[in-house]
Write a structure and sequence with these properties.
Strand content: over 45%
Order of helices and strands: EEEHEEEEEEEE
Number of helices: 1
Structural class: mainly beta
Helix content: under 10%
Distance between the termini: 34 Å
Radius of gyration: 13 Å
Shape: globular
Largest sheet: 7 strands, mixed
Number of strands: 11
């Protein structure tokens, strides 16, 4: 089970930190990825992280503004989002992908999904 939190309304240029609560056992086996889906658009992959090694990946458009991290002691993966823009308005999802190495932001490679959390950036 994956549960997102931390969404909400923020102004242009603001920051939010999203959390994806999984379980410690899940983090040991799965890479965790963040996606978003804006109204009328397809879901897109943003970032991912694995444990061994702690590889990460980012979509180019968010690479300099978003940072993914994980806390293995609590079973939580975070997405720190800075310098937010109205174009970042979307429902944000975390997903789990069973793999030993690396990580992915490809939708059909995900095994489990959270229900999503809404992020709204006002101008």
């Amino acid at each position: 089970q994956l549960v997102e939190s931390g969404g909400g309304l923020v102004q242009l240029g603001g920051s939010l930190r999203l959390s994806c609560a999984v379980s410690i056992s899940t983090l040991e086996k799965y890479a965790i990825s963040w996606f978003r889906q804006a109204p009328g658009k397809e879901r897109e992959g943003l970032s991912c992280i694995n444990s061994d090694p702690k590889s990460t990946g980012y979509l180019g458009t968010v690479k300099d503004r978003f940072t993914i991290s994980r806390d293995d002691t609590t079973g939580t993966v975070y997405l720190q989002m800075n310098s937010l823009k109205p174009d970042d308005t979307a429902v944000y999802f975390c997903a789990a992908d069973l793999r030993d190495f690396g990580c992915s932001v490809t939708l059909n490679e995900m095994d489990y999904w959270g229900k999503g959390v809404l992020v709204t950036v006002s101008s």
